[in-house]
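Bench log, entry 3. Co-assembly request; chain sequences pasted below exactly as received.
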Amino acid sequence: MPNDSRTAQAAEVLVAVFGVRPVTLGARTAGPADGNPGEKRATDQGLQILLWRRAKDPDAGRWALPGGLLLPDEDVDSSARRQLAEKVDLTQVAHLEQTGVFSAPHRVPGVRTIATGFLGLVPLDADPAIPDDTAWHPVDTLPPMAFDHSDIAARAHLRLRGKLSYTNIGFALAPAAFTIATLRRIYATALGHDVDPTNLQRILSRRGMLAPTGTTASPGPAGGRPAALYKFAVTDLRVTDPFAAFRPPDAR
Amino acid sequence: MPNDSRTAQAAEVLVAVFGVRPVTLGARTAGPADGNPGEKRATDQGLQILLWRRAKDPDAGRWALPGGLLLPDEDVDSSARRQLAEKVDLTQVAHLEQTGVFSAPHRVPGVRTIATGFLGLVPLDADPAIPDDTAWHPVDTLPPMAFDHSDIAARAHLRLRGKLSYTNIGFALAPAAFTIATLRRIYATALGHDVDPTNLQRILSRRGMLAPTGTTASPGPAGGRPAALYKFAVTDLRVTDPFAAFRPPDAR
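Structure output for the full assembly:
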């Protein structure tokens, strides 16, 4: 299919990686020249996204999603995994999925570049080593972002919130074992509103998604009865609540 | 971001358009040279997909999804709409969504071409005029397809089946007004297994997706009480069954 539109065109992948992580409140102190980000005060947890700061024009100084150009011998999914591995330890990314194609003609200056957007999720107990130009940012107070990256991040955030309500995608944000209080905090943080812990436990248990580990958490500073620990029984993405009537007969 | 991988590369869109349509049983008689597809005997309804037959190499004679190369001034969504309008009256396509990027390095011969796949749906009462090289094909007996188009069609079919179980996507396959018997036939056909009509009506009604039109269908040849007609109350895509506990407080 020879056609002029095939020339001077590039394909890139861009990943919005989210995790529930400690939020630093107050101004961050300036770090020394070696890139040390300075003192942090961990006071609360919030949904955060992994961004790197562009050093060069175009959009120098703006924050960008990890990713880059597709190589000749890879497809977009392997490209996303490869490029993520360059920013963060990939074994700590528990879920990765395409969110859509971003292809407005002038979304980046110069050569036309078509992006495949991805959603990536990192569990609460992962603490991936990240390069000096990279940092976690709370989703409510995102800095100015390069190109259309804020649209790509917003699409991924919307996908995450949607899938929390009809799939088991919470497995990819939760640690290996957790109390219901922790799970509630993860869901409330990712959804952006409070969640009733009793309902949360009942809904996920009824759908076979939650299993007790048989162990308990060590009691907090206030003492009291130690809380039971749970794990996700299924750790690949499933629609947890299809209408029963529409399931194939052999899946009932 | 100058890089060699940006040269000699193309982007295309490919749409898997599905509709529930009369199935022709038995061998189709050969049509005359003008492309007339010959006599059909309409005996039943089935889920069908719109394909066109490639006249030229590569893959001459094989059936392909409608679509083609992205133009410099359009994004993939407008390209899909434009190219579909060239094959079928677009006002009759009730739903169109991206299903994913197909980017295996050698998926088509020659210049590397990256495809954005789409799912398109046509309602039961639409009868779009289609060109001579284009025909509806039952999804259970698909002919040999060009390139990786059968993978793109399979992905769209899977997406349709999934969304029938947790969204109102049936609106895009159903006619403007329908009996529950017709709706059951549409769902059973699209899902590939039988569906209980009482459950179907109860589930969709409880979620506010089904509304009576206040009229009845004309009685069939067997006579009997005329059946009530219904319509979809919401005709844009919604997740119909999010866990109530996870909805934001103002949506309860």
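Residues 163-251 of chain B form a domain with the Arc Repressor Mutant, subunit A fold (CATH 1.10.10.10). Chain B touches chain A through 57 residues (CB under 8 Å).
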